[in-house]
Amino acid sequence: MSSARILRLRGFIAQDAGNADLACELVDALMEEGDLGAAGDVLSSLPDASRAVPGVVFRRARLGLAQGRYGDAANDCQQLIDAGIDSVAVRHDLAFSRLCERQGQSAYDIAQSAAATFGDTVELAMLRARAALMLESYELAQSDIEAALTLDASRADAWGVAALVYLDTGDLPQAKHAATQALARNDHQHEALMVAGTLALWEQRLDEAQLMFERALERHPNSGRVLSGLGQVLMLHNDLPAAVEVLQRAVAAMPDHIGTWHALAWALLLQGRTDDAESAYHSAYALDRNFGDTHGGLALIAALRGDHTEAEQSAKRALRLDPNALTARYAQSLVLEAQGDRSGADAVIEELLSTGPRVTDVPAHEFATRLRAKLQPSTR
């Protein structure tokens, strides 16, 4: 039916090339089919006068969002607003463009203003919740996602964003409940699959986690957090080449996520790629110089290279910043072992393992134990 409609519209517009209304209808049909390139060709083939029609500008903005050209989309939305063509849809798309550009405060303010002007909607409330998470304003994120669910509790996407909010605020039972609600309504809901997969990973239900992450990637192949989770599952399955490839995709999609750089570093260490692991830790360090586990990772690199003085200094810096920095304590154990204090090294490892992993971290306890076993022939 849709293909026939597209053919019919193409026939009409061939007879009336400047008809903006026909062009908008055809672009809508092509975007529904996922043919973004053809939709762009329709818009670019219009004469200048038709390109300035508000409906055409709005479709151009929507196409920009779909193609990841967030700056272009924002410019088109702002052009409409400046021309007095304002609506909740235009404001939402402007806010969403800013969110995708990592401008969380701007996105939140635009969505808040739109709700005040036009009345709140589920879409605006979800967008505010996402922006609040980006700003680490967790109470605000909870308030906004609860507003979205109050407006319409039947929406799978609202439950999915709720799952993400509760995961990031540490309310794991609520995160699980929200993910279940979302997946009952849409078994491919992106955020819900990511949350369900993450919870399964933390609980070491690896096959279930992998299934959830792979299903999410079917429709969202560049989802950074999903790629990060899948990479960690692959590490735990000891499929290190695949883990490195997936984690490299994750840091490309999400270059400002320190934990994913740490996961990549562990995967590289387990392959014996110390120089590449050091590069990953330096990427994390460039994001935040005060993150304890990053300093601990650099201490670990120094220990593996036999630079015990640098390892001890980096480990001390790490533990000042984070007394629970596992990488720093593991680096100290390697130094003790290299110095002949095997019992002291064992005591450090036993202390680390007895505390149990922190569920919101890369499962470095598992990787530390595996790396230690890998190194034993050269350290005994």
TrEMBL record:
InterPro entries: TPR-like_helical_dom_sf (IPR011990), TPR_rpt (IPR019734). The keyword Protein biosynthesis does not apply. Transmembrane segments: none annotated. This is Tetratricopeptide repeat protein. It comes from the Bacteria. Pfam families: TPR_16 (PF13432), TPR_19 (PF14559), TPR_8 (PF13181). SMART domains: TPR. TPR repeats lie at residues 190-223, 224-257. It comes from Lysobacter korlensis. The keyword Transmembrane does not apply.
